[in-house]
Amino acid sequence: MASISISDGANGATKPSENGIASPNAAASTSPTTASRNPRYYLDDSMAIFLVESQLYKVHRYFFRLESVIFDSMFDCPAPDVGQDGNTDNQPIEIPEVTCQQFEALLDHFYDGKQAYFNDSTPLQKYIDLLSISHRFECTTARERAIKGIDAATTNPIQMIDLAEVYDVPKWLTPAYVELCRREEPLNESEAMDLGPRKTIIICRARETIRTSPETRRLLDYNGYYGYWSTWPQNILEESRVQRIVNECLANLPETPNPLQPAVSEATSQSGQGWGGKKKAKGKKKAAV
């Protein structure tokens, strides 16, 4: 068998190895000046200090950079005259209009993962807190986790409509409206107040169409229902039919914006898109408003 030559390290001469295996020193080394940082696994292990309400949090920047372009931009906007925000307790990055509970929901997503979510003990409010902060700061994977958790944790249609509109989750709207329109009981006063006039009109109009339209009368005649009946025939409240009527009512109801309010929804105004890192108080940085 052919032997492999290795250098003796003194004068550059080579000699064969005894076992035919090349010495590690024989491998070509890469100069540090030519090495590049791996885009996935060269981690930023530096820490950042955040101020939320009256609490200071010292956590890894890496998760925030990876998850959100808004958080990422915060770390790239230092003020040359006062130094980098987030390095000391006296100069934290301030996160206004966010509760400690919401911020900790995001940190649990980063650090605990499945241990903190998707188990029977996870309260619905924790998913809502995660959805709120992830929507505002455009944290994609955290938002997806929150939506899945809320899907599995709640069946309250009034709450689903509210969450769908505030946090821009349109897939929750139609099923919630359909549930309210198919049930026997009409909206009560408390539900109507929670929904507001516009959404209450949608539901009342859809419920009336489902039960009293010419199409409904034809279906009742077809099924032999005359006069009084204790329950509605199955085809009157068939889910696909109710969904079609709900979608028609949603499409045909015109928008009636309040002229006293700006034409920006609450969800949009809190999304964090307007933060540009240009205005900042001395000694601390404020995040998206």
Automatic annotation (TrEMBL):
InterPro entries, A to Z: BTB/POZ_dom, SKP1/BTB/POZ_sf
Compositionally biased region (Basic residues): 277-289
SMART domains in the cross-refs: BTB
Chain segments carrying region Disordered: 1-35, 256-289
Domain BTB positions: 46-119
PROSITE patterns on file: BTB
Pfam families: BTB
Compositional bias ranges of the Low complexity kind: 22-35
Coiled-coil regions listed in the entry: none
Highest taxon, organism lineage: Eukaryota
Protein name: BTB domain-containing protein
Lineage of origin: Eukaryota, Fungi, Dikarya, Basidiomycota, Agaricomycotina
